[in-house]
Amino acid sequence: MAYADRWVRFHSLPESKRYADDASESGEILRRHRTVLAELRGSTGTADLWAIAPGWDWRDSNGGWAKDRLPGAWPWRIGQIDDDCPAYFWAASGFSDSAVDALLLEVADDRGRVLFGAPDLAWLYCPYDGGADVLLPTVAERDALKARHTDWLSTYPGGL
Fold it and tell me: Tens of pLDDT along 2-27?
């Protein structure tokens, strides 16, 4: 894995549970995502976050999940999801807290994909249905973030 020395994975529910069964567990998912994102952002708010997301309707740049969920998004690039499926990737910024929460919950329910980053993309936050992968600028920053949230680390051997 590229940049493995600067990567850490956090799970969004205790005991590496993948999906929420009730509102309490959905709240825990949001709490963990918000906590790490706030630490990554520092004093900046969610309006300074950048998001990049693939559109699922690869046949038409005007459709797809990302275009619908990222207000004001612009087409960043066309890429490959797999050998048979090209996709449009959309970029946007200027999110409210509630818009970020909505994106995080959709990703947690496996209804979409999004990557968040700083305006200079110095760090990347990649939520998925079960947690988030974080890529930081330095090993020291990765280690500090990891040390603050040891209870949220993967329980699987090898870190995944």
Answer: 788 999 999 999 988 999 999 999 99
Asked whether the beta carbons of 37 and 116 are under 8 A apart, the reply is yes
What DSSP designation does 153 have?
A: B
Structure tokens at 131: 């947690």
Cα 77 off chain centre by: 19
Q: How far apart are the first and last CA of the chain?
A: 12
Nearest to 115 by CA among 32, 53, 23, 59: 53
Query: pLDDT (tens digit, 9 = 90+) per residue, 123-156?
Result: 999 999 999 999 999 999 999 999 999 999 976 5
Rg (CA), the chain: 16
Residue pair 62/73 in contact (Cβ under 8 Å)? The answer is no
